[in-house]
């Protein structure tokens, strides 16, 4: 599997389920919004998140080179199993064409080493 590391520092934010999507969450070049009955989650550039917002991070994104066919199986399992064995936590996201695996910024080099040792290719 070929992955590319993003240089952006990301935050994963939690808001209440009925809150409107704030403009800070969709400004910038990288963001993802998910809403369920129990929460509103926003993943965006860390520098855009205001003080007081519940968040984790900073995270760094590893993009799985795509586009990926929706019928493929085991893409995330291959990556997540490798990172779990290396004790690297992940936060996974998928878009229509691409899977993203976020790893804590302080564990990026550990993730990189584990993925390379497992035979994955990783650009910067």
Q: Can you walk through the features of this model?
A:
The protein is an alpha+beta fold and 124 residues long. The chain has a single domain (2-123), classed as VC0802-like, CATH 3.30.2130. It is 20% helix and 36% strand. It is built from 3 helices and 8 strands; from the N terminus they run ββαβββαββαβ. The protein has helices at 23-26, 75-85, 108-117; strands at 2-5, 10-15, 31-35, 40-45, 54-64, 91-94, 99-104, 121-123. Strands 1, 2, 3, 4, 5, 6, 7 and 8 form an 8-stranded mixed beta sheet that branches. A hairpin with a 4-residue loop joins strand 6 (91-94) and strand 7 (99-104). It is globular and about 40 Å long. The two termini are 15 Å apart. 22% of the residues are buried. The model has no long low-confidence stretch (mean pLDDT 94).
């Amino acid at each position: 599997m070929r992955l590319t590391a993003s240089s952006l520092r990301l935050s994963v934010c939690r808001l209440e389920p009925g809150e409107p999507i704030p403009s800070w969450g969709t400004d910038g070049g990288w963001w993802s919004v998910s809403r369920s009955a129990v929460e509103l989650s926003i993943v965006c550039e860390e520098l855009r998140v205001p003080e007081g917002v519940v968040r984790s991070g900073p995270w760094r994104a590893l993009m799985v080179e795509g586009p990926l066919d929706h019928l493929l199986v085991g893409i995330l399992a291959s990556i997540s199993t490798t990172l779990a064995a290396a004790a690297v936590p992940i936060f996974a996201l998928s878009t229509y064409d691409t899977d993203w695996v976020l790893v804590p910024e302080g564990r990026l080099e550990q993730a990189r080493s584990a993925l390379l040792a497992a035979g994955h290719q990783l650009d910067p």
